[in-house]
Design goal:
By secondary structure, this protein is an alpha/beta fold. Helix content is about 30%, strand content about 15%.
């Protein structure tokens, strides 16, 4: 189904649901319909121009800007009453940020929630992309604190707009070159800059380098929302996304040197390192708690991830 047709179907379901339900005195999904329509129109423009930052009128929400308001506004604008929601923070389903956003969205929409990546229609995330490969029809909404990838090389918003318009990215390439001269490698960890559809350099949000390859030719739709900066941008399904690299200094993901998760034993996932203050010993846990729990369940161990 085309994305515009999907939005129309969501709008029809919303209207049908609102006619028979009350949400504690709030409009369905909290935000007023005019605001949601404006955000959906900006999403359509962002999808049409992959990697381009589209300004939007960021609304007030019952949380402070900088704690995910951009992502929440996108989620509230695209979610329908029949959808299933998953929220993660640094890969974890049980963090304070994830739990409270999940409770809020559930309270104002009545949608079901899950910790299973493949069961969810909409996934809102902070700083991680799920380990399991998402499929067509799914939407991943990323909370973005700093949407401008060129801010590290240019403080002026007017100048960064010009640089994007003219595809003048020489300063970013020079920044990477100077990084190599200084550290003998590109030392950027999170927010590694990427080229989207061969046109725009984009900030992928503070996800680790481990997650960057998941953006390339993905089946799901990626939506990025920055509430404080009032920007929305997108990576549509099957879009080419390339990390910036030189011929002799290739992009590489984090190396955990054979470490494995102490709970499920996986070695091919992004791991959180835990250091014992008393002994200095290191242990590792899967950052994606939902995936870790799923592996344990499949192995017959049961339980839920406790970190």
């Amino acid at each position: 189904m085309k994305f515009r047709e999907w939005l129309d179907a969501q709008e029809h379901r919303r209207q049908k649901t609102e006619a028979g339900r009350e949400y504690n005195g709030y409009n369905f999904a909290f935000i007023d319909e005019g605001a949601k329509k404006e955000i959906r129109r900006k999403i359509l423009k962002a999808v049409a121009i992959p990697g381009y930052q589209v300004p939007f009128g960021s609304r007030e929400l019952p949380i402070a800007r900088g704690w995910g308001t951009g992502g929440i506004q996108i989620t509230l604008s695209v979610i329908g009453p029949d959808d299933v929601l998953k929220v993660i923070d640094q890969g974890c389903d049980g963090s304070v940020n994830a739990v409270n956003i999940k409770k809020f969205v559930s309270a104002v929409t009545g949608v079901k929630t899950t910790t299973d990546t493949l069961e969810a229609a909409v996934i809102q995330t902070r700083h991680r992309i799920p380990e399991e490969r998402m499929t067509e029809g799914q939407i991943l909404v990323l909370q973005v604190p700093y949407p401008e990838a060129l801010r590290t090389v240019e403080p002026s918003e007017l100048e960064t707009r010009r640089m994007h318009g003219e595809a003048d990215y020489s300063r970013m390439w020079l920044y990477l070159f100077e990084d190599i001269v200084k550290f003998k490698e590109i030392s950027i960890g999170a927010r590694y800059p990427v080229m989207v559809n061969g046109r725009y350099i984009m900030d992928p949000s503070p996800i680790p380098r481990w997650d960057i390859p998941k953006l390339n030719m993905a089946e799901a739709l990626f939506l990025f929302g920055a509430g404080r900066e009032k920007r929305i941008y997108a990576i549509p399904p099957y879009t080419k996304v390339e990390p910036l690299e030189f011929d002799d200094f290739k992009f590489r993901v984090e190396d955990f040197k054979g470490a494995s998760c102490m709970r499920c034993g996986k070695k091919d996932t992004f791991l959180d390192e835990i250091i014992d203050d008393a002994t200095g010993s290191r242990t590792y846990l899967c950052s994606d708690t939902g995936h870790c729990d799923k592996v344990l369940e499949q192995n017959g161990d049961g339980g839920t991830c406790g970190h």
